[in-house]
Amino acid sequence: MDDTVVCRALTKVYQEDSVAVHALRGIDLVVPRHDFLCLSGPSGSGKSTLLNLIGGLDSPSAGEVRVDGLKLAEMNRSELAQLRLHRLGFVFQSYNLIPVLSAIENVEFVLQLQGMSFTQRRRKARAILAEVDLQGLEHRRPGELSGGQQQRVAVARAIVSEPSLVLADEPTANLDSVTAENLMALLRHMNEEHGVTFIFSTHDKLVMDYSRRLIKLHDGEIAADERRT
């Protein structure tokens, strides 16, 4: 498969006070492997909804999503959980770290769920934390880390299992400009060196500037799709 994600006629309609709200209106999108793609647009344009559908966190009203050739609509809850565990990585703007676990324990948690031995997962988690420049901070809990450090732990957790796709929802929202730039440079490095496909949703021009492909959403539709060098 040359494409990590394929969306066809993807539609999502919510009911709010008996009123139909069209979050997505027939989205067609193909994301090749190793892409570094940004979804932009105003609040309510459908960015987060599209990410959630691609990640199998929500179901479309119509249309289909394929990830690594797998039709999400044909998968049951357990199969979707396995897909997210083994093929997808998530980076949330709220970090979603487990507060009682140390940085290295947060990173290796996914590997533990995958059944990897303690020795193997500890070695992999330590190596990826060094790659995101957090060596020496492995045993600090999230509350003992800065926002930028917590976000780097979240990135390390997302990529430690070597997923084919990472979905990042507003990854720089809580970061200062210097930390945000360092984070985006790190993610570009992960994309180029590890071949991980990234899809971001953002309002941040910095993220847009780092992306190699910019998709602009408006009222649940693709308004522009720009490929950059």
Description:
With 229 residues, this protein is of the alpha/beta class. The protein has one domain (33-60, 74-227): Rossmann fold. It contains seven helices and ten strands. The strands form two sheets. The chain has a six-stranded mixed β-sheet with strand order 6-7-8-3-9-10. The chain has a four-stranded antiparallel β-sheet with strand order 2-1-4-5. Strand 7, helix 6 (177-194) and strand 8 (197-202) form a beta-alpha-beta unit. Helix 3 (103-113) packs across helix 4 (118-131), helix 3 (103-113) runs parallel beside helix 5 and helix 5 runs parallel beside helix 6. The model has no long low-confidence stretch (mean pLDDT 91).
The helix content is: 25-40%
Mean pLDDT, to the nearest integer, reads 91
Radius of gyration: 17 Å
Shape: globular
- Report the oligomer: single chain
Largest sheet: 6 strands, mixed
Encode the helix/strand succession as letters: EEEHEEHEHHHEHEHEE
Number of distinct helices: 7
Distance between the termini: 23 Å
Specify the CATH homologous superfamily.
P-loop containing nucleotide triphosphate hydrolases
Spans where pLDDT lies below 50 across 5 or more residues:
none
- Give the C-level CATH assignment: Alpha Beta
Total strands: 10
Beta-strand content = 25-35%
| The CATH architecture | 3-Layer(aba) Sandwich
Instruction: Provide the CATH topology.
Output: Rossmann fold
Task: Describe this protein with a few key phrases.
alpha/beta, Rossmann fold, six-stranded mixed beta sheet, globular
